[in-house]
Amino acid sequence: DGLTKLSFPESLQTIGFSAFQGCDGLESVSFPEGLQTIESSAFNGCDGLTKLSFPESLQTIGFSAFQGCDGLESVSFPENLKTIGSSAFQSCGSLESVSFPANAKLETIENNTFNNCVSLTDVSFPEGLKIIEKSVFYGCVSLTDVSFPANIQTIGKYAFNGCAGLTSVSLPEGLETIEAQSFSNCGSLKAFEVETDNLYFLSKDGVLYNKVNNTLLQYPIAKSGTSFNVPDGVTAIGDYAFDSCGSLTSVSFPESLQTIGNNAFASCGSLTSVSFPESLQTIGNNAFASCGSLTSVSLPESLQTIGSSVFESCASLTSVRFPESLQSIGFSAFESCTSLTSVIFPANAQLQTIGASAFASCSSLEEITFPASLSAIGVETFAYCGNLSSLTFLRDAPAFSHFSAFTGIASAGVIYYPAGSEKYTEAWKKDKLVLGPDWKLAPAYRLKVEHGAGDGTYGADVRVTVKADTPPSGQVFDKWVSSGGRFDNANSATTTFIMPAAHATVTATYKDDTPPPGHTHFFDSAWRYDNNNHWHECTAGDGARADEAAHTASEWITDKAAAKTEAGSRHKECTVCHYVMQTESIAPTGPTDITVDGAPFTVTINESTIPQTGDTANPLPWLLAMLAALTGGAALLLYRKCRCTKRRG
Q1: CA distance 236 to 151
Q2: What is the pLDDT of residues 623-641, one digit of tens each?
Q3: Is residue 6 helix, strand or coil?
C-alpha cells in the first residue's frame, strides 16, 4: 500500500497477471524500453496513476490491465502496439484523452476497452484501424466528436451506445458493417453523414440506411421534427432504429415495408399513431414496447407474426383488431396494456397460438372472443385481467388451455360456446380453465349482418351494435329487418340488436332517395318510430306520415326471470309499435335470512310484487307491509319463548 513509484530494469519484457492490481497509492510508472507485454489486470484499480507513456517496444496490453484506474487522465499509445485487450481501460473515470500515432499497427480495439470512461472527450484513431468491437466506447457521455479512419471496416454492437454528447457521426467510404445499437441512446445525435462512395451505407436527411438490403438502420434521437415518412423502397426497419425517440409523434410507412425489427420503436413515449402498410409481414420483439401515448393499432391483412412484448406496457392503447392472416401472438405481446378494452379477431382468423402472458394484466379488458382456428392458449395468457368476465369460444371443441391462462380474472362471468356442442362441460371449466361455480356456461348463436357490420357469435339476450353500410348511390337507409330477435330502433342505421336464443340474420334495407313527383300516398303497414313517436310512412319515400302518435308504455315484460343468485332482466315497450322504451335488471330472488334472539327467521320476497326501478307505484305501502311482517314474526318468536319459560318455571 505504500508503493508510490515504479521503475523496471531495461531487460524486463513482461509485467505479469495482476502484478500490481489494487496498488491504489501508486502514482507513477516508468516502463523500460524493452517491455513488450503488460498482462491482464496488471495495474487494475491503481487509482493514483494519472498519466501513462508506453515504450515503443510495447506490443500487447492485456484485458483489464488498467481497468478502474480512476485517476488516469491521458494515455498515449506506441506505434508498435498490436493488441489492446478487452476492458483494458474500462471505467477510468477521469480519462479525458486517448491518442494513437497515425501509423500505429493496431487493427482492432477489443470489447469494452474504454467502456464507461465518462470524462473522455477526444480520441484519435490510427489509420490502419479496421475493427472497433462491442461496447468499446459504451457510456462515454462526454465524447462529442469521432473521426473514423478511412479503412475502418466494422463498428461493433453497442460501440458508441449511450454517448450522450455525440451530435453528429461521419462514416467513411470503407465501412462495411455497423452492428445493432452501435449508436443507440445517443441523446444529442442529430444526423449521420456517409461518404458518397460508400458501397454499403447512405444517409438521407440525416437518417442512416443500408444500401444493400434497403433497411433503415438508425434515426437520430435528436433529429428535429415530430413526424417522419419512411421513404419508398425501404423493406425493413432495423433493430432499435427509432428506440427512445421521445419527440416523434407519428410515423408512416411505404408499401414496400415487410419487416419491423426488434425494439424498433421501443420507448417512443410521444408516438400516438402508426399506419401500417398491407405489405408488412413481421413485427419483431418489443417493437413498440412502452409507447405510452399509442392509443390504437390496426394491423394489416398481410401480417403473419407478432413477436414477444411487441406492445407491452402501451398504457394508452385501447383497441386492437387482428388480421385474418395472423398465425401467432408472441409472449407478453400486449401485457400491461391497462387501457385495452377491445380485442377483435375476424371470423375467418388463422390464429393458432396465443403466447404466455400475451394479455396479462390488461385490467380494463372485459370480454374476448376466441376464433375457431385457435389451438392453444399459453401460460398466464390472460392472468390478472381482473375485469375479464365474458369468454366466447368459437371452436367446436375446446382449445388447449394452460391451467394458469385465466388466473386472477373476474370471480364470476359467462363462458359462451357454440350452440349444440357437447364438449364444453362443467368438468372442463373447472379442471382446464380453473374457474369457479360463479362462472356459467351458455350457448352462443351466430349473427349474420347483411349490408352492415356486427357479425359475430353471441349469447341470448346479448345486446349487439349493428351498423348499416353506406347506401348505394341514389338511395338512403330504410330500415333493419331480421329473422328473429328485436331492435331498439329498426329505423336507425346504427342501432342495438337483442340476440335471440337462435342463429339470426339481420339485413339493412335501402330505398330511393328521391320520391317520384306527384303521387297518391300509400302507407306502409309496418310502424316506423323514433325515441318519442311512431307512425306509418309513405312507401314512395317522400317522408309523408300517417297515424303519428306518442309511444304508450306497456307493463313490465320479463325477458329473463331472476334466480336466487342470478339477476334477471325486463323491459317496457310501446303497446302499438313495440319500440323498447325502457330496460332494467331484476335483482336476484335469494332469501333474506334474519336472526331473532338466536333463531333464524326467513322472509322470501317475490320479485314480481315489489316495485322495481322505474315503477310508478308508491313504495310506502309495500315498505309498511314488510315492516309489519317482520314485527309480527319477531313477536311470534318472543311469545313462543315466553311460553317455554313459563313451562320450565
Answers
A1: 28
A2: 445 555 555 555 444 444 4
A3: strand
- Residues in contact with 435: Cβ distance below 8 Å, sequence separation at least 6, in sequence order: 406, 409, 413, 415, 429
**Is 370 strand, coil or helix?**
strand
What whole-number distance in Å separates Cα of residue 394 and Cα of residue 417? Answer: 6
Provide the pLDDT for residue 515: 63
* Strand pairing category for 122-124 and 154-155: unpaired
Q: Are 234 and 256 in contact (CB under 8 A)?
A: yes
Q: How far apart, in Å, do the first and last CA atoms of the chain sit?
A: 100
118 CB contacts (<8 Å, ≥6 apart)? Answer: 93, 139, 140, 141, 142
CB 15 within 8 A of CB 38: yes
In sequence order, what are the residues at sequence separation of 6 or more whose Cβ sits closer than 8 angstroms to the Cβ of residue 591? 564, 602, 603, 604
With helix as H, strand as E and coil as C, how does 187-256 read? CCCCEEEECCCCCCEEEECCEEEECCCCEEEECCCCCCCCEEECCCCCCEECCCCCCCCCCCCEEECCCC
**Pairing assessment for the beta strands 463-468 and 452-453 based on DSSP bridges:** antiparallel
The pLDDT of residue 560: 86
What is the rounded CA–CA span in Å between residue 573 and residue 553?
A: 6
Nearest CA-CA partner of 459 in 389, 509, 507? 389
* Alpha-carbon gap, residue 207 to 245, rounded angstroms: 13
Please report, as a single letter, which amino acid is at residue 516.
P
> Quick check: 601 and 577 in contact, CB under 8 A?
no
Which residue ranges of the chain lie beneath pLDDT 70? 1, 515-518, 591-649
Is residue 318 within 8 Å of 292, Cβ to Cβ? no
Q: Are 119 and 94 in contact (CB under 8 A)?
A: yes
197: cell is 462512395
Contact 159, 132 (CB under 8 A): yes
- 88 within 8 A of 111, measured Cβ to Cβ: no
Residue type, 376: A
CA dist 221 and 208 (Å) reads: 12
Cα–Cα distance, 463 to 18 (Å, whole number) = 76
CA–CA separation, 599 and 589 (whole Å): 22
Q: Which residue has the cell 306502409?
A: 524
C-alpha of 598 from chain center: 56
Q: How far apart are CA 346 and CA 339, in angstroms?
A: 21
**Residues 556, 580: Cα–Cα separation, whole Å:** 11
Q: How far apart are CA 400 and CA 621, in angstroms?
A: 56
Rounded Cα distance between 243 and 590, Å, is 57
DSSP state, 552? -
Which residue reads 484523452 in cell numbers? Answer: 97
Query: Shortest CA distance to 274 belongs to which of 300, 294, 304, 245?
Result: 294
434: left (phi over 0), alpha (psi -120 to 50) or beta: left
The counts of H helices and E strands in the chain are 2, 52
Residue 275 β-bridge partners: 252
Residue 541's pLDDT is what?
A: 72
Q: What residues are paired with 388 via a beta bridge?
A: none
Sheet holding 545-550, edge to edge: 528-529, 533-537, 545-550
Regarding beta strands 568-573 and 580-586, do their DSSP bridges make them parallel or antiparallel, or are they unpaired? antiparallel
Q: For 261, what's the count of Cα atoms within 13 Å in the CB-facing half-sphere?
A: 17
Cβ 495 vs Cβ 487: under 8 Å: yes
